[in-house]
Fold this protein.
Amino acid sequence: MSTELTPTGLKAQTFAEVRQELVDAFRAVYGPINTGEESAIGQQITIMAEREAIIVQALQAVYASQYPASAAGRSLDGVVQLTGITRREATRTIVEVLLTGTPNATIPKNSAASTDNDDIFFLTDDVTLDANGEGTGQMIAKEAGPIIAPPDTLTNIETPVSGWDDVTNPQEGITGRPVESDPELRLRRVRSLQVTGSATVGAIRSRLLEQVDDVTAATIIENRTGEVDAQGRPPHSFEAVVTGGTDADIAQNLFETKAAGIETTGTITEIVTDSTGKEQVIKFSRPIPRFIWVRLTLTALNGISESSEQAAKEAVVEKGEQLQLGDDVIWQTFVGPVHRAVDNLDEVFVEIGVSSDPETEPSTFEQANIAIENNEQAQFDVDRVEVIT
């Protein structure tokens, strides 16, 4: 078999097949010569076969780079551009900050502060303190990527400025993201193929994810019946449940995508102006948070250190944050991550509970799964993970 492009795809020879083909060619010319791997001619044939096999491998890579499922890196960038999308670049974490100091002092743009993890942030605009010596502004991380800034951690002034005494971030920032990975880009390409459509569930969801800035998750819940459904959705309506993005942008996108005569429903109401200047009511919802509490009972022959307890808590939260809108919480899924995070564990006993308030601990913890509705989102936090040793 020769390496060739056929109607069924690329047929590529292996190294063994290439070498045998060269052996047959040499013997056809020189007769029954010694072509063993240790012979002079055999070594020459092996060198030639290796070079040809490398070329065949390069041909295979070029062939694979034409298709989204097998292309990678820059080749994938080129393939997805055929459907009008490009790889998302890394973004930087943005944090709202409170600045204090001398009344009426001005802290100039690009003044720097840092967290205890030595992550540097820069002020995006000048901030002039008020008569009480306070002012608010926005800072952006020096480095792109998922730099986390929990509340009250951006507290170290790096750029001395006369009249600037303190800085803090009362709330967690909007965490940046890394460069879009190949698997993420492939998935987004598939979703983008539905964006050109409208009125279908797939198209509405895809447009929210692809066309509205900062939307990270979306689900569409239909009521196709002529009756109000069990959750109160009107007949022939749909509810978009969306994470991220601004209310106005989401409403505009839904108005442009939904079918004529189909009603939107939800807990958030926005007014959109149509092409004739008339105001249209668009409704949608944000996910209803279900606050998950986890109780871990850990047993280890040599005891459990404080650092191990913290590692176990973080493993639970990391696993929980992988859940999407409407994903049920399965208690068994936390056992493996905890074992991997803490060495020499003998036993992990997991119990979970749920509440509608992040500060109110549930009265019951069980080894039982928690059902999450398709308009709900399970929320995890290390402060809601208890470790018993």
Remarks:
- The mean pLDDT is 87.
- DSSP finds eight helices and 19 strands in the chain.
- The two ends are 65 Å apart (CA to CA).
- Residues 4-64 form one domain.
